[in-house]
Amino acid sequence: MKVKFGGDEVTLVGNQVAVGEVAPDFKAVNLDLSEFDSKSLKGKTIVYSVVPSIDTGVCSIQTKFFNEEASKLGDDVAIVTVSVDLPFAQKRFCGVEGIDSAIVISDYRDHDFGKKYGFLIDELKLLSRGIVIVDKSGKIAYVEYVEEVTHEVNFDKALEKLKELI
């Protein structure tokens, strides 16, 4: 799949996911460098908010937006921001920006999420921007791969789908 990054075409590698499919299990790294296992969220509605780098303008907006939403949604919903930033940078960003309701994980080590969900930009080894919503049964209910990585996700459409599920 091709998307654009700053106007230049780049290639997404891995398996692009689609609505109705079972969400692939993956592993990543938590802020404290421990292993994150997506299986730990089974039975919850999950929003994967995917960003190239948490510390840039559009990524920061997306992360703060979904953190605020997470604080309103209760324990049956998990908001997970995924980037390839090192956990040290993510932890600093979360502290400065007050990110305390969303889970923030790093896919830097194995790009497991990026490959299994088809968000890994081959040329940059960053994740593309997008949203994946997984319902409580573990099936993908919503997917957005943003065509121009520097643009925002469709917040309204993602929230509308999320509210249908909870």
From TrEMBL:
Protein name in the entry: Thiol peroxidase, atypical 2-Cys peroxiredoxin
Start and end residues of each Thioredoxin domain: 17-166
Keyword Protein biosynthesis: no
Transmembrane segments: none
InterPro entries hit by this protein: Redoxin (IPR013740), Thioredoxin-like_sf (IPR036249), Thioredoxin_domain (IPR013766), TPX (IPR002065), Tpx_CS (IPR018219), Tpx_Peroxidase_subfamily (IPR050455)
Keywords: Antioxidant, Disulfide bond, Oxidoreductase, Peroxidase, Redox-active center
Record-level Gene Ontology MF annotations: thioredoxin peroxidase activity
Keyword Disulfide bond attributed: yes
